[in-house]
């Protein structure tokens, strides 16, 4: 590991100032992703700003019935919160589907939003990776692609976004609160993560000095009837091949409200807008679910190693909606 400076921030403003004055500095929360990347030599910050002492670890009710979740809330604590169980079960299920209990006890909500891809070429310093080294090329394009994305990809990067929680947050129209030297701003979850395009190394809408301080979940009545389904190579401690976060309300056989997002298939947490539009106001039956899934997956860009994901995603969407429809 390379030498680096360590700063323990006493408040949010101090943390932001410490990063703003040090190009390439990184915030340290749970460290479950950053420390691994530093050990592998993928991340090489000259300064690490420890934010674990900041007062950002509370879950508070909002006046509209939503929740405000501090960025330092541990994944295990959020998964166990009874308000999350009651109002947003897909969030609890997504958290419990990710990592191991030990990692969930350390990992934070803010860090989950910022975790980097698990593409093996990104982690291999000998491989070409535009996300790690802009302009280097992408060895994944002609390589092993089983875990890679099929939606939102480009010729510069086909890495899949790894988070389970972010898929649920995308379905719920969460809002991310961030603080920088210019003050506080709010970023809709749909705009927080960026597609790779020609700049896959630019992964979020954050400015270099900005710290995630909270995530707000709006009141979403349909979310009380929601599910997170994850398909992976083994039953635990594995990233999604395909995952589905879905909420569905059916009245008299008709879809009254629906929320749908996908993981494992997108270059970012993938809100399934095309599928939602087809489902809304239509019949809540298996044929409609299949048509909606096919419409969402129609623009997929597949390679021999991940072509199976279109069939798997379609089946997982249909199965999840079927379960929710009763």
UniProtKB/TrEMBL annotation:
It comes from the Bacteria. One of its GO terms (molecular function) is FAD binding. This is Molybdopterin dehydrogenase. The keyword Oxidoreductase applies. InterPro entries: CO_DH_flav_C, CO_DH_flav_C_dom_sf, Diverse_Substr_Oxidored, FAD-bd_PCMH, FAD-bd_PCMH-like_sf, FAD-bd_PCMH_sub1, FAD-bd_PCMH_sub2, Mopterin_DH_FAD-bd. The keyword Phosphoprotein does not apply. It comes from Nonomuraea aridisoli. SMART domains: CO_deh_flav_C. Residues 1-222 form the FAD-binding PCMH-type domain.
């Amino acid at each position: 590991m390379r030498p680096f400076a360590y700063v323990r921030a006493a408040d949010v403003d101090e943390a932001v100032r410490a990063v703003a004055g040090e190009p390439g500095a990184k915030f340290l929360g749970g460290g479950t992703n950053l420390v691994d990347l530093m050990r592998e030599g993928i991340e090489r910050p000259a300064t690490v700003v420890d934010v674990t002492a900041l007062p950002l670890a509370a879950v508070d009710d909002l006046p509209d019935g939503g929740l405000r979740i501090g960025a330092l809330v541990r994944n295990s604590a959020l998964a166990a919160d009874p308000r999350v169980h009651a109002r947003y079960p897909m969030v609890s299920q997504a958290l419990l589907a990710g990592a191991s209990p030990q990692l969930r006890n350390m990992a934070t909500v803010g860090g989950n939003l910022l975790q980097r891809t698990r593409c093996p070429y990104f982690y291999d310093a000998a491989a070409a990776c535009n996300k790690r080294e802009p302009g280097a090329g992408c060895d994944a394009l002609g390589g092993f692609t089983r875990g890679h994305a099929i939606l939102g990809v480009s010729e510069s990067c086909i890495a899949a976004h790894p988070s389970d929680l972010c898929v649920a947050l995308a379905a719920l129209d969460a809002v991310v609160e961030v603080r920088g030297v210019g003050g506080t701003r709010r970023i809709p979850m749909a705009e927080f993560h960026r597609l790779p395009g020609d700049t896959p190394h630019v992964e979020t809408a954050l400015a270099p000095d900005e710290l995630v301080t909270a995530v707000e979940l709006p009141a979403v009545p349909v979310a009380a009837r929601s599910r997170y389904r994850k398909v992976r190579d083994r039953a635990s401690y594995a990233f999604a091949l395909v995952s589905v976060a879905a909420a569905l309300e059916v009245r008299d056989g008709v879809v009254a409200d629906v929320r749908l997002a996908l993981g494992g298939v997108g270059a970012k947490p993938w809100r399934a807008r095309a599928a939602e539009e087809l489902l809304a106001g239509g019949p809540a039956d298996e044929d409609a679910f299949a048509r909606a899934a096919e419409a969402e997956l129609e623009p997929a860009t597949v390679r021999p190693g991940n072509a199976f994901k279109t069939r798997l995603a379609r089946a997982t969407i249909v199965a999840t909606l079927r379960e929710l429809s009763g």
